[in-house]
Amino acid sequence: MNDAPASSPGAAGPRRPGEAALTALGLGPAPLSPADASPHSFPDGGSWRTEVPSVEGPEVLGVVLKESARLDVPVHRISQGSGVWMLTDAEITEMVEGCAERDIELCLFTGPRGTWDTGASVRTDSGGAGLRSRGHDALAGCVEDALRATELGVKCLLVADEGVLWTLHRLREQGVLPADTTFKVSALIGPVNPASYAVFEQLGADSINIPSDLTLAQFTEIRRVSRAPMDLYIEAPDDLGGYVRMYEVAELIRRGAPLYLKFGLSKSPGIYPYGRHMRDLALATAKERVRRGRLALDLLARHGADGGMAELGSRLPGPLNRFEISS
After folding, report:
1. Please, which residues bridge with residue 52 across strands?
2. What is the pLDDT along the chain (327 residues), one digit of tens a residue?
3. Distance of CA 210 to CAs 37, 267, 301, Å?
4. Nearest CA to 137 among 123, 117, 156?
5. Residue 175, by phi and psi: left (phi above 0), alpha (psi -120 to 50) or beta?
6. How many helices and strands in the chain, by DSSP H and E?
7. What Rg do the C-alpha atoms of the chain give, in angstroms?
8. Are 234 and 53 in contact (CB under 8 A)?
9. Which of 21, 66, 100, 155 is most exposed, with the fewest beta carbons within 10 Å of its own?
10. 50 near 8, Cβ under 8 Å?
11. 222 φ, ψ to 5°?
């Protein structure tokens, strides 16, 4: 497998924002260090893929597919945040078929989570256990969601609990879940240091959301210990901080590859769990997320940094490190 970045900045490589004008004023940026660059890539040699999040049902998916075609925004993955249990079989099937027609990976969230549970600790100032699945029944609900979704053709599952991740990975290894099922760790439990990132990889994660406020140096620190793909909100929803890092996209790719560029949306109300009562908001924000993707891709193109996109239709992460599963 080619594990070198598809493209890396050099003397004739991508330019940095405002570089020539600032250099002429004696305010040029410090040189980039090759040691900061990620040595990893997706299996086809690509450095980055794209993801449109918060696609909560077939109608929202239709808007995303139409708008991405109109604006020429390549999409590798579509993800949903409300959960498998918030969709009917017919809705899941329609989403699976719609994504398959465009060779896009569909990722659905698994089961009960702490923010919707009866437990009070998550609503305290400390946040308690957060999104994690409380008790056996919540764990069982996540497993039930995973079984149902994969039976309907879903190939990627979003998880927000380490125990759920490890359980689903073991079921995948046993053949209970299809071998090509991938697991994506939610941004709401995303790791913030190299050791915890590596633990998620070992537990079975195939891509890992990291908080959007990590520094560039922290990207490099993670890449020194793990090659598992990163998921990163280039623009984060307000409940994840509302950060907008569009001008850093080229450097985020250079340091974080292999990386999913997630086109989120700040200054927008939350829509989980989604229902028809939020239809207008969900459709409008889905359309704008795709537009935000176009803006980010245009920035990359203007700076000559738009090379290295992984092939459309690619979805598997390549070989990753796992904890041994005892018999």
Report:
1. 78
2. 344 444 444 445 788 999 999 999 999 999 999 999 999 999 999 999 999 999 999 999 999 999 999 999 999 999 999 899 999 999 999 999 999 999 999 999 998 776 666 665 666 665 555 677 878 988 999 999 999 999 999 999 999 999 999 999 999 999 999 999 999 999 888 899 999 999 999 999 999 999 999 999 999 999 999 999 999 999 988 778 888 899 999 999 999 999 999 999 998 878 788 888 889 989 999 999 999 999 999 999 999 999 999 999 999 999 999 999 986
3. 18, 20, 25
4. 117
5. left
6. 9, 8
7. 19
8. no
9. 21
10. no
11. -65, -45
Q: Which two tokens stand for residue 235?
A: 């623009």
In angstroms, the CA 163 to CA 204 distance is 10
Nearest to 198 by CA among 221, 226, 219, 227: 226
Q: How far is CA 233 from CA 154, 213, 219, 253, 327, in A?
A: 23, 10, 14, 12, 38
Beta carbons within 8 Å of 119's beta carbon, 6+ residues apart: 128, 129, 134
Cα 87 to Cα 110: distance, rounded to the nearest angstrom: 11
Amino acid at 245: R
- CA 250 from centroid of its chain's CA atoms: 17
CA distance 97 to 26: 55
The amino acid that residue 209 corresponds to is N
Pick from 57, 21, 74, 54: nearest CA to 301: 74
Tokens for 14, please give them: 């991508």
Alpha helices in the chain (DSSP H): 19-24, 58-70, 89-102, 135-151, 162-174, 194-203, 216-223, 249-256, 279-302
Question: Residue 258's closest CA among 50, 48, 77, 78?
Answer: 48
Place of tokens 């604006």: 71
